[in-house]
Amino acid sequence: MQCRVIAAFLLGICVIVCGGCNAAREPDELAYVVAIGIDKSAKEGLIDVTYVGALPVTVGEGGGGGGGDQTKMTTEVTFTAPSLAESRNFLNSITYFYPTLTHVKILVIGEELAKQGIGDIIGPLTRFREYRGTNYIVVAKGTAKSFFKNNKPGVPGSASRYFETMMETSSETSYFLRTTLHDFYLRLKDADGTSYATMVAVNPQTMENLPAKTKAPGEKSEEYYVGDIPRSGSNPVEFFGTAIFSGEKMVAMLTNTETRSLAMLTGDFKRSYITVEDPLAPKHRINVNLRQGQKPDFVTSIVDGKPVVQATVFLEGEVTSLPSGINYEQAEYKELLEESLSQITKQELTLLVARIQEKDTDIVGFGYHFRSKFKKLEEWEEYAWPEKFPQADIMVEVKCKLRRTGLMWRTTPRR
């Protein structure tokens, strides 16, 4: 009986202690950090850390002496510190709100820091419990601080919702690809593929046309690097293209077209409009809404120690514009347009493969498809895929099928 009393007493103590909420804080006591920017500092060995936070603010007066409505005010502050942890200490020293990082949506890395190497930045982020693996990671052309300073969405809503929605819209064009902290870190530590991240920049909005390179034969749309889209008005900030890494260092940027090609090879391509030359009337253009038909197929082999890859990409399309009036709905004309689309896309994919081999960075992840060739992990590691990748024979094939012709099932010639 005495043991039961003691056990009940101890159980009651445990319930009281464990059921307490001594560490809880009210929402109006917190400063919610929604975005973090990290730049290389002008001071050797230090970094500039920019925090974008949402502070709870009371507006208006309630009746009977009560408080008004709660809203959130977005603010930003930059610190120079030796680490992210120390910059967080600084943040806590300037606000009476308690800073929390559990609602961070995006991490913006400055271009100079990305080229220097970000392994020492990414590692601690994955260890600290307040950073989530679902945080998006992007690289800013220029500095992250400038990106935040010039970012003016011009639409109502929270800053966190803006960043989250922007990244989710990547599937609409595949002109940029969303990358989470978890995905980036896995590729950083894995020798079978390398990391990449979305590029962001501030556009000068001068309407100057600065195409990145010569178009592929038959392609009518120009390709651009981030910050070079000829435009004016609206938010000067844009999400566009891709930063590619070799190890922990950024080695190059991809254009929008190269980014779309990357999405096709990785199987992350959803849809995108493409404007091509009319095969039978070159002065006219044809618009096609492309989408992924099925995941790409990879056939791999090793010939005399050299890796060989045959990659096949499957696309489906819907014709959305036929200015020439040619009846491409007819079987033989339809096949001609399908072949034209396949060849144009094949050229773009081939150019991308050549470029990433030149930069020695397997962002597509071809290495993953060679693992099954080896019985043991040690054998695969001894094969040293990163050293073999630049000399690999990689051939690309594209099979494009037109499934729909828009709202018209037959084009009638003009009279």
TrEMBL record:
PANTHER family: SPORE GERMINATION PROTEIN B3. It is a lipid-anchor. Pfam families: Spore_GerAC (PF05504), Spore_GerAC_N (PF25198). InterPro entries: GerAC_N (IPR057336), Spore_GerAC-like (IPR008844), Spore_GerAC-like_C (IPR046953), Spore_GerAC_C_sf (IPR038501). It comes from the Bacteria. Residues 1-23 form the signal peptide. Residues 25-200 form the Spore germination protein N-terminal domain. Residues 241-406 form the Spore germination GerAC-like C-terminal domain. Belongs to the GerABKC lipoprotein family. It is found in: Membrane. This is Spore germination protein B3.
